Amino acid sequence: MKKFIFCIVALFMVAYSAEAQESKSTAKPRYEQVGSHHSFSVSTPYRLEYSYEHVWKSGMSLIGRIGAGSEVYSPYKNDYKFTNGFRLTIEPRYYLNNEDFFALKACGAILIPNTPYDVSLVPVYGIKREFTKHWFCEFTVGGGVGYYSGNKGVFYFEPHLQFRLGFKL
């Protein structure tokens, strides 16, 4: 009787293991499962954004964002200030696995009240986690170059450290 139970358990384990291996091989990476989507997010420093992410099967995606809120700029070389403004961002991404990615953020902002503009190009590394079907968060870090149009134009180092909480439609 013990041998019979052992054989049943062994057969069950082999069958379960084969099924698990089969499901792993046919499972799509998360960036393919998510697909293209619209989302709204709140990010640091105090910005509300709408975005659209188009995802390809290769692990690449392209995100377009438009938002309003706090902006960081440098009116004098590496002397950082906060102001309000509107920002447009184009961000191509390459997903390393289901949740980690490299991106190149190309941003343009109109700063209020004097309406100078600020543009930047910043390579970043990011981590994206999804809590549910609709809720996600992202953490990105990087640094690049920025240009502020006021004060006869100034190039500066643009540090990037951001946390984003979002809702996918």
Describe the protein's topology.
Blueprint: H1 2-26, H2 30-34, E1 37-43, E2 47-55, E3 60-76, E4 79-95, E5 100-112, E6 117-130, E7 135-148, E8 154-168
The average pLDDT value, as a whole number, equals: 82
What distance lies between the first and last C-alpha atoms, to the nearest angstrom?
A: 56 Å
The coarse overall form would be globular
- Uncertain spans: 4-12, 14-25
Report the total helices: 2
Order of helices and strands: HHEEEEEEEE
SSE class: alpha+beta
Helix content percent band: 10-25%
Largest beta sheet, briefly? 8 strands, antiparallel, barrel
Could you give the count of β-strands? Answer: 8
- Specify Rg, calculated over alpha carbons: 23 Å
Defining key terms:
8 strands, 169 residues, eight-stranded antiparallel beta barrel, 63% strand
Description:
The protein has an 8-stranded antiparallel β-barrel with strand order 1-2-3-4-5-6-7-8. The protein is of the alpha+beta class and 169 residues long. Strand 7 (135-148) and strand 8 form a beta hairpin. Residues 4-12 and 14-25 have low confidence and may be disordered. The N and C termini lie far apart (56 Å). It contains 2 helices and 8 strands.
